[in-house]
Amino acid sequence: MDGVVNINKPSGVTSHDVVQMARRMLKEKRIGHTGTLDPLATGVLVLCIGKATRIAQYLEAGKKEYRAEMRLGVTTDTLDADGRVLETRTYKPPDRAAILDVVHRFTGTIMQSPPAFSAVKIAGTPSYKLARQGKALPNKARPATIHNIDLTAFEDPFVRLTVQCAKGVYIRSLCADMGDALHAGAHLTRLQRTRSGRFGIDKAVTMEALAGMIDAGTSESVVTSMDEALADFPSIALADADAGKVLHGNRVSCTGHAPDVNDRPGMVRVHDFLGRLLALARYDGMTISPEVVLS
């Protein structure tokens, strides 16, 4: 099986646990995911299966959307409800206007430090391993892009948000930082990823549902082809001679070929004239340079 499956991850298991379960269920060793969800979190976890593991990095780059709930007045070592309470603060409950002001301040490109309990590596060691040993060091702040934050509800001490962001944003860190900005402290209590690139929660399947489909022989119905999974990238069709060159990893001229979006440089899907997906390539307006040969 080569393709992508949109899983609705349950709370209480790691993303790696889901991958391991899928490997056993589908009898396929080559399975990976396109962006870790913490054990607390639920929602969209995109699994790449078989040859599709080679396109995982391109799918992972898609926009993410989350529904989050944070609790004011309490901070934890993991920045979420699974952690050890560090401090319970007395604070003046903010009004909605104050929360909206903070929301505005955290929208756009901000500097964000990954949590100590995260997979970020420090001198080759995952930060969470150092944190468990009591040796956690502050992770260096780095740019994070947050496209939009909507305040969906506020019933003190709980604040509910919808966040649209780029790859690499830690919602735990966002909640903790917003809590500090509100002079209350905060931690994440619930998180659901509702979208990752093209894949939304409305089409995600549970592991139980996938198991039932496998037993019934209908699991192919929830497998998205690599071509469809990459459909956000424009397409270009090549004649046999150039298609053969691409299949051997060679760069070809764009003369006589035009991607379907105004010659904009970037990644493109390369097809032959029969519509078969051959490769994912970088297009610079002059040449097509294959990065991943798929056929």
Describe this structure in words.
A hairpin with an 8-residue loop joins β5 (74-76) and β6 (85-88). The protein has helices spanning 15-26, 56-60, 96-105, 127-132, 171-181, 207-216, 226-229, 240-247, and strands spanning 3-9, 31-33, 42-49, 64-72, 74-76, 85-88, 108-112, 121-122, 125-126, 142-155, 158-165, 186-196, 199-200, 223-224, 235-238, 252-253, 266-272, 277-283, 287-293. The mean pLDDT is 91. The chain contains eight helices and 19 strands. The longest helix has 12 residues, at 15-26. 34% of the residues are buried. The chain is of the alpha+beta class. Strands 1, 2, 3, 4, 7, 10, 11, 12, 13 and 14 form a ten-stranded mixed sheet that branches.
Keywords:
globular, alpha+beta, five-stranded mixed sheet, 8 helices, 3 domains, 22% helix, 36% strand, 295 residues, Pseudouridine synthase, ten-stranded mixed sheet
Q: What's the story with the biggest beta sheet?
A: 10 strands, mixed
Question: What order do the SSEs take from the amino end to the carboxyl end, as H and E?
Answer: EHEEHEEEHEEEHEEHEEHEHEHEEEE
Radius of gyration: 22 Å
Q: What's the shape?
A: globular
